[in-house]
């Protein structure tokens, strides 16, 4: 009997955390016991995108997209859908806006506006099975490059495509390849930068987990083009699942003659090793990453010479980001013109983004460059949940900036975002609403970068610390207006004089919030007010006399024993001095009598 | 320990892998001075060089830790969605501060940079397993379950 249905269960890290494995096991048992094993193919795939709805699964060819599936749902799905052909409506994705049941994956707005190129296989094939990758035209581009193209022709196609580095800075990929190809030196290396460290970024993890062969194929094509014989994939240790899937993929590729000695019997040899980081954000900087692969402290090295000339073990080295590698095979197969037909003139192709924070549909999305921020956040992302007001979107992580509402119609491309004082970055997009304090966000990112600074240069090591001290002063209500100019001055100096990319971009979150949210800084300083009621030193809790019913729940739950009163005799009173501003009373009061205020004194 | 080291050629580029392996293999999940001395001698490096390199990376520990390592994400996407409350809940439930180990040696509480599962924020990792969509109630369930499983084994 032929296979009637393909049942794809997402096993990206987010769905795994929601127990997708138990769902798969339950489905497997139900399919077995219903005697459907020959008719139904059950596949574990990489990330499908809408992580907050997990565990998610997709049934082909019906296109039914099930969300929040539990192991208990398995029997109903098998019985109703697989046997009787009636999709289980209560589990289908309900569009929160229209409140209508959407039955096909294609009709869901989340997917409708996306353009999946790099993520085409993510969520559609089993990443641990090389045959599925090959069935989806996998390794065809490698075959074409090795047998029908000269190395310089490969580089020419990549150059013509206009592909730019997806790690954040957007350097033209073809040019980088050309530098390495022209460099002289013994062994050349090809490196994949999988040290995805930006808070709120998970594009690279998802691609490595969902389609590891695409990265391997991209690197192998590049190795042929630039004349490299060895490759390294450097992944952060926080991603054990990606490491595991990659290792399975590497072994399978070697076995299939697609990696190692004499690839596809062309005489070309290339092999890849995986290296795991150990928790150092700076290792995402390419020269620090090289130092880390060599077994040294991950400290950035002076450029020039660039890694293309003197990189890993002192040899010419080509380093690209995971998503950049994921684009290569598509460009080789479909040509430079095809790639240029997607996106904008200056930023061709698609970009994968990780939507997180205060947005309805969190998860992984891939869009053509040039789409506006508004379309991405509101049409695909579904906007801000709980009727709250959008305040800002943070792009580019600790190197990026916060973009306010008035610029939501900006197209997403390298130059436009840079003009706003943000950067494309690797693709993290953190959405913030009215409950988020922009001064506090800036402080967070500075805490992060000053903590992750490797310490070798003074501007970054000392300068960031000084900026952080000032921000702490402001958020604790002790700031001065002159601090704002000081922050700008320090920030500019750190950008100009830092040794590597970490310091050169670390002030951006502060400078961009100062530019767009100056008023919030002013309120913190002059009015001792945090409008989002986040900065604990600037908020006070008090109990409303008229609403308090003197039930005593607040006093009982207060960890600081700061609330006094007598049951039945309202009101209870919070002792300001003893209050630690944890918010417990606000949460537990059944009558909403606890009020939170800032700057009202 | 020696057998573990000999899985790698004696080249410095394998230093981090060796340190990871030695730490994983230690029941208390840390790098002892003996372990680092063994690596140093295997690679022909000084102990201070090995220690200096290891201490650069936040995932290596130089003091004994618990059987399970809880790493709660401290990044903005998780913070925006309540990671502070989750961290407070863990501290209260385990009676430890961040960086400390429970009296029974079962859990060490740490923070981590972004785990890359922001779609299910707030998130944490216990050993190699990721837990998302955390609430104080789920923390109760998860920790109690792990305690029971530990007792059973």
Summarize the structure.
Chain A is an alpha/beta fold and 601 residues long.
Pick out its properties:
heterodimer, A: 601 residues, alpha/beta, Glutaredoxin, Rossmann fold, Ubiquitin-like (UB roll), 5 domains, five-stranded mixed β-sheet, four-stranded mixed β-sheet, 23 helices, 19 strands, globular, B: 153 residues, alpha+beta, 2 domains, 7 helices
The CATH topology of the largest domain in chain B comes to: Glutaredoxin
Q: How large, in whole angstroms, is the Cα Rg of chain B?
A: 17 Å
- The CATH topology of the largest domain in chain A comes to Rossmann fold
Order of helices and strands of chain B: HHHHEHHEEEH
* Molecular shape of chain B: elongated
Computed over alpha carbons, the radius of gyration of chain A is 27 Å
Which secondary structure elements does this structure contain, and how are they paired or packed?
The complex is a heterodimer of chains A (601) and B (153).
Chain A: E1 5-10, H1 13-17, H2 20-33, E2 40-45, E3 57-60, E4 64-66, H3 74-83, E5 94-95, E6 100-101, H4 109-112, H5 130-135, H6 140-148, H7 151-161, H8 173-182, E7 189-194, H9 203-210, H10 212-226, E8 230-235, H11 240-255, E9 271-276, H12 286-293, E10 317-321, H13 322-340, E11 350-357, E12 363-368, H14 373-380, E13 390-395, E14 401-404, H15 414-419, E15 428-433, H16 438-452, H17 458-475, H18 482-497, H19 501-505, H20 508-516, H21 518-527, E16 539-543, H22 553-557, E17 563-566, E18 569-574, H23 584-588, E19 594-598
Parallel strand pairs in A: 1-2, 7-8, 7-10, 8-9, 11-15
Antiparallel strand pairs in A: 1-3, 3-4, 5-6, 11-12, 13-14, 13-15, 16-19, 17-18
Chain B: H1 2-5, H2 15-25, H3 33-43, H4 47-54, E1 68-73, H5 76-80, H6 83-94, E2 107-112, E3 124-126, E4 129-131, H7 136-152
